[in-house]
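Our preliminary data section would be incomplete without showing what the modeling component actually yields. Below, a chain of 130 amino acids is followed by its predicted structure, encoded as tokens that our downstream tools consume directly.
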Amino acid sequence: AFNDVGLAYLQCGNAERGVASLKRALEINPNSGARYNLANFYCQQGRYEECMGESKAYIQKHEHSTNDSGVHAQMLVESYNNVGLSLVYTGRPEESLQWFEQALKRDPKNMRVKDNYQWARGQIKSDGTE
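Predicted structure:
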């Protein structure tokens, strides 16, 4: 319930209460989707270090799960993608590639991840580091 309330608060523009509710959901059930929702909120707000932390924590908890539902698999793909995006936005495009590659291993046809991977590669080339 705290997860749903947190999402409702975020949709209404009340970030403080939304984040608090999502964190409360995590206290009650650390394996809930609240961590995924919190990471997405942080990414949307440009809070990339926090997004990376929550996304990595979600991946660590769920990447070896036996839950093979399509929703679960997509949440993992999005979490890897969020880490990759956060790395690019924080000036570390080289590090991002491995995260996008992990996302693509799980969903090779995901055009958004493919586009983000190519964008990151372009950032490396434009920095003169490749």
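Helices lie at 2-11, 15-28, 34-44, 48-62, 70-89, 93-106, 111-127. DSSP finds seven helices and no strands in the chain. Preliminary results of this kind motivate Aim 1 of the renewal.
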